[in-house]
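User: Please fill in residues for this 520-position structure.
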């Protein structure tokens, strides 16, 4: 056998060793927990045969606490690039079979390399997290490794899409990299994220709490809003990421892919003419409106379980990717509160960063009153949504379906904050407040002066009717040009698509600045 052949054989053997990660026993342990290995996950995520791996033979550089006895090829993370539906993406997947996926400086260097390449080449970066945290044996070097990753997350923000999937533990400082990315997918039951674990919580606060209660997928997608998606299986998670990527451009200099559309632009949806209830206080499901107007009724909702009073989702109009923000009358009457404002503001900013037009469907009675909201800083959080809409330069099409009261009218992409095309249904009510509240303010003295209860009730009813006649329609706003047109509900799809087509060449730039100071 020649020297060359021996070297080739050694390469093949080394590759086989590297692909085994921490060895068969640990792979079996991973499978026993209902989890896939790093390479199996990458294979599920990317187009078949497209993965090109980097740094397969990297090992850690630690010689303390017995670490000199173990140098595994790859050192706990698999990195490289491949394609999703033929489009370039960069990926890293933490390998729990190697020292529980704990982060070393070498692992950080590998991750930083693909993040740098994603930024330089203008392609999305996807991180698959399954790690025990910082490698304690490396001390400050492990912390430096995390910091290096965080810095790149921030530099990549708004330049290339960043998606994190949590398929196992993600605790302590490790949580901040996913938190800095655009979207987080968590698997139910086997994944969790928290800064301090149940034992520390018990010691410091005396609370008894499980890992799932403290940082599970269900908690983070319903209570904290940290994660946007919870999935039942890792396979479902990979398909979700692939679908999510399909709505996004490669980077901030490009547009999202235009898909072929077989759904007629002029399709009329007669059901929309009857969807608004006769009673202004009766709810309806805004999702029905969205399904009726988007291509083939298909959409991908983000943060579906969190702040349900507002909807954020991706969809398409005539094959064009859009972000939809919509009040949901079915929950809390569609009112804006702290959580809804934060959720929608972040979604608006993502869409604006990546050239995705924004369609806003409005039915909002105002901001939620009460001490809990005021003490919690609803003013600042509401200002986040206002700021996001004001700052956005992408095409913005707004349709007001029913209520648009007070400051919430302004915030929800009104004409005054650079809404490009603002439509209203005939059922729209645009005013400072509802009729009963307005009459209480405008006619307080006259009402108080009427002693007879029946006469007082009659007077109030007349004044409320007078107010409704003036404001319970869109024509007062249309008179000032704040509404561009009053449209027939069933024709909404056609009008939105035509508006988006007219805005395809929109050019708008904000004043030059280092960066804005969004209220945080």
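Assistant: Residues filled in for all 520 positions:
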């Amino acid at each position: 056998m020649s020297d060359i052949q021996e070297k080739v054989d050694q390469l093949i053997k080394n590759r086989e060793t590297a692909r085994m990660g921490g060895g068969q026993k640990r792979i079996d342990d991973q499978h026993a927990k209902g989890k896939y290995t790093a390479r199996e996950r990458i294979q599920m995520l990317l187009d078949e045969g497209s993965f090109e791996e980097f740094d397969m033979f990297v090992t850690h550089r630690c010689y303390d606490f017995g670490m000199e006895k173990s140098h595994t090829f790859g050192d706990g993370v698999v990195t490289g690039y491949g394609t999703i539906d033929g489009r370039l993406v960069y990926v890293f997947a933490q390998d729990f079979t190697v020292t529980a996926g704990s982060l070393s400086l070498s692992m950080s260097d590998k991750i930083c390399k693909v993040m740098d390449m994603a930024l330089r080449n203008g392609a999305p970066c996807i991180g698959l997290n399954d790690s025990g945290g910082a490698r304690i044996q490396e001390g400050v070097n492990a912390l430096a490794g995390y910091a290096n990753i965080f810095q790149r997350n921030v530099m990549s923000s708004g330049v290339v899409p960043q998606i994190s999937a949590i398929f196992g533990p993600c605790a302590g400082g490790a949580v901040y990299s996913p938190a800095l990315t655009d979207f987080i997918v968590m698997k139910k039951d086997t994944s969790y994220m928290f800064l301090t674990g149940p034992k520390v919580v018990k010691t410091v606060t005396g609370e008894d709490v499980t890992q799932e209660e403290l940082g599970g997928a269900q908690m983070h997608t319903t209570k904290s809003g940290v994660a946007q998606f919870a999935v039942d299986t890792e396979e479902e998670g990979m398909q979700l990421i692939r679908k999510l990527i399909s709505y996004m451009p490669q980077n901030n200099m490009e547009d999202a892919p235009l898909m072929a559309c077989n759904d007629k632009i002029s399709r009329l949806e007669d059901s929309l003419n009857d969807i608004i209830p006769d009673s202004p206080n009766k709810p309806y499901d805004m999702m029905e409106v969205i399904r009726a107007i988007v291509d083939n009724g298909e959409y991908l909702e983000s943060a579906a379980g969190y702040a349900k009073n507002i909807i954020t989702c991706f969809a398409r109009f005539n094959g064009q990717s859009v972000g939809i923000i919509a009040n949901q009358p079915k929950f809390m009457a569609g009112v804006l509160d702290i959580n809804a404002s934060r959720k929608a503001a972040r979604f608006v900013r993502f869409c604006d960063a990546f050239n995705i037009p924004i369609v806003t469907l409005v039915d909002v009675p105002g901001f939620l009153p009460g001490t809990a909201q005021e003490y919690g800083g609803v003013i600042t959080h509401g200002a986040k949504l206002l700021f996001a809409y004001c700052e956005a330069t992408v095409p913005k099409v707004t349709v007001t379906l029913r209520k648009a009261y007070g400051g919430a009218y302004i915030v929800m992409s009104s004409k005054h904050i650079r809404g490009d095309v603002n439509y209203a249904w005939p059922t729209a009510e645009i005013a400072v407040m509802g009729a009963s509240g307005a009459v209480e303010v405008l006619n307080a003295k006259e009402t108080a002066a009427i002693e007879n209860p029946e006469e007082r009730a009659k007077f109030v009813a007349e004044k409320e009717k007078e107010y409704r006649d003036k404001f319970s329609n869109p024509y007062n706003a249309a008179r000032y040009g704040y509404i561009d047109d009053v449209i027939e509900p069933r024709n909404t799809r056609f009008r939105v698509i035509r508006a988006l087509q007219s805005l395809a060449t929109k050019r708008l730039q904000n004043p030059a600045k280092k960066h804005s100071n969004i209220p945080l």
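For context: DSSP finds 20 helices and 17 strands in the chain.
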